[in-house]
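hey team, just a heads up i'm posting the complex here instead of the shared drive bc the drive is being weird again. everything in one block, sequence lines first with there labels, then the predicted structure for the whole assembly after. its two chains so it's a bit long, scroll down
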Amino acid sequence: MLSIARTSLQHSSRRVLSIARPIHTPCRPFTQPTPLKQAPATRNVPKIQRRNYSQIPERNSIGAFTPTSAALFVLAGVGLYFYFRHEKARLAEEREKERGLKSFGRPNIGGPFSLTTHDGKPFTEKDLNGKWSMVYFGFTNCPDICPAELDKVTAVLNNIQKEHGDIFLPVFISVDPARDTLPQMAQYLQDFHPSLVGLVGGYDETKAVCKAYRVYFSTPPNADPKGDYLVDHSIFVYLMDPKGEFVEAFGQNVSQEEIEAKINDAITEWQKETGKKV
Amino acid sequence: MGWFSSAPKKEEGAPNRQDRQKCWEARDAYFACLDDAGVVKAGEEGKACSKEKRLYEDNCARSWIDYFNQRRIIAEAQKDRLSRVSEKK
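-- predicted structure starts here --
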């Protein structure tokens, strides 16, 4: 306010001088900086000057805040508010579209399967929906990698369940249909997290689920149920979202902390999209 | 005792956590003995580690033993290669 008052004073005091002298810098906004040599331009200058300068005192006497400027200010504010809201919505939509595209780029891991749980209930890929699932393949006679990985999964589950609640469904799918009976699976899983569900099928069902998850396994179809053999198999832990879509695969070298961080990120992302955790 | 020894408690069924632990401990003891004897390939130690070997075989399935022995050879070869690489540097 003070600076406005001062400049207005200067304007009025210079008003007289400005007729005889060229225009000074504070007044530049009201005039065209036209070179004097150009005849047509100079002819117009006095006319413009006269009109502008006669208006200044009136404008200054009212001050900068007229009802019109206040209305303009409010209008601009409201306009900007709606503009930004619109932009935000547009960006969110764009991001949504991108996400949609991203899901097209996902590896095609997972798919229909039909197996039996370690306590004898039928289980298909539809039973994975509505929960975050971790899918791991192995066999109960596995010497060291499977139990180590299942221990890691157990530790991860302990922590993420504490944080997010009961929204996880970890499954352990047998790649040894000849030897992994239901009671044997049940007994084996007692050593690990209680929410782990053991899944067993015949040779063909096992082959089908392994194909769906791009898992290699080496059990021959005519393996001896009493035989002493190992099954070579892929050892990834797959994270699937509540829609049953693949999110991430964790290899043996991915630490427990890294898995937890990835799962937390996935849940946050999902929550941003859907407003829910599952 | 073990689950695949001459007098197995469990004819069928996979080893549980305790069984696995026992097997791993017996394996580590046997491999430590092999290290002392300067032997990489299990079975080439003569009679140097017979006590450890018996415990190892009592507590681990044959398939596990083959797997661990084979992995020991691979791991040693890898160690060799790694040390050679670091020497070159």
